[in-house]
Amino acid sequence: MKVAVAQLNYHIGNFEGNLACMRSCVAKARSQGADLICFSELSTCGYPPVDFLEFRDFIHRSMSVVNELAGDSFDIGIALGSPTVNPDLEGKDLHNSVFFLFEGKVHHLYHKGLLPNYDIFDEYRYFEPASSFNTFEFKGVKIAITICEDIWNLNHDNPMYDLCPMDEMIKEKPRLMLNLSASPFSFEHTNDRLNVIKENARRYKIPIFYVNCFGAQTDIVFDGGSVVSSPDGNNFEELPYFQEVLKVYDLEDVEKGIFSKEQRKDKAELIYNALILGIRDYFTKMNFKSAILGLSGGIDSALTAVLACDALGPENVTALLMPSMFSSEGSVNDAQSLAKNLGIEYKIIPITNVFDTYMQELKPFFKGLPYNVTEENIQARIRGMLLMSFSNKFSHILLNTTNKSEMAVGYGTLYGDLCGGLAVLADVYKTEVYLLSEYVNRHKLRIPINSIAKPPSAELRPGQKDSDSLPTYDLLDPVLYQYIEKRKGPDEIINLGYDRELVLRILKMVNKAEFKRYQSPPVIRVSYKSFGSGRRMPIEGHYLY
Known about the structure:
17 helices
């Protein structure tokens, strides 16, 4: 038997586009002699469809994709994911399901049993979990189907679930398992996923064809990395990340366990590719053409500009340089050098005169009050206004350049440097920004050395440095990581050896900045815990105040 794995980029709600991609793959798999082809979870409608699932028409149109593909299954089996209506009156209205189509009809229907309800996942909001699980026979081969999370409770060590679907199906002695997944990217998740697949193969001693999607859905990035695993627990092959792949495997070869290949797992490379895909898909799927951003001469805006150029092409990126009376000559020169290195169009619009006009108008009301963060924020908001004016007039999408460290502690101005259509670096800590900058400079100097080497500064007052308001990033980022990603409380972090006063100061800043994050652009997710749908905190909470 020959099994085709189709790793595709789906578009939520683009039923015609998703169908066309799957039909093309069915034809290619057929031409290569495949007996069956396997797509990923909810492939008819794209993952995650969230509250689109509450529209009857959305479910109807998902089913129309199934019906259309059934017509292509006259000589090849097709496994694809789709939401289905739950016929029982009790429970949720829908199931998260897989159809196995053959000879023009539904040969087998499987419903997902383990529904994730953590981080970015909220499947219990929509779906009813299955309580019974069965294999089926196809061309004399018994097959077990699972969906994503169904293989993640192998040792019954997850308190969310009280069953393991494969423990039931293995009693029927299937020869192979198909797992249809929509497993999102984080740079810490790739090895976890490989290990879970290996553990399943060792336990059940059958080949596993794990099919993941790739592509970005606004903030969530799917990396692909589909896996074919042999019964000995070794991965026969891990498919490439962040690209479309169709590959056909001979089941007997996989059972022998001869070939073994895993993808390179370099942190900087993974994050870089995820961000590129996040930007590109955001623009492509929204039918946007060009981007604009502000260049300050600093490392964050420089890295964002490089990523935008690599994702969209330099001809589709415009930069504004908006120096003030506090901007150093070096910063302006660094920004110009970057723009020239990248070959992007840039405009210089000094903001000093605009700022002076604001101050003149406000003088009667601010008389006698000292210069403080108010005047700093006015500068940031002038820049935001200029960027949004170009965005509106020329149909550019503004890319936000704030990093995760700044977003975490609220070191940014609402309606100023926090505005934009997409936050590119807001899930990348400042220390990781330096790592990525080294990565994009590895073959050719793109980001000027001075942008990397100079002390970070917002340049909103004379001689300002980030360290005037924040702990240095080498101290700040590890504490943020323990609090945000690891969800450790203050005493737990202090017990790891961090200074008590430092920890409490940082955590208070994080909590007090929640209202800013509620009003900030969507964040491309590259870590296990990003700011967005996977992290829900109250604005008015009193924890650590």
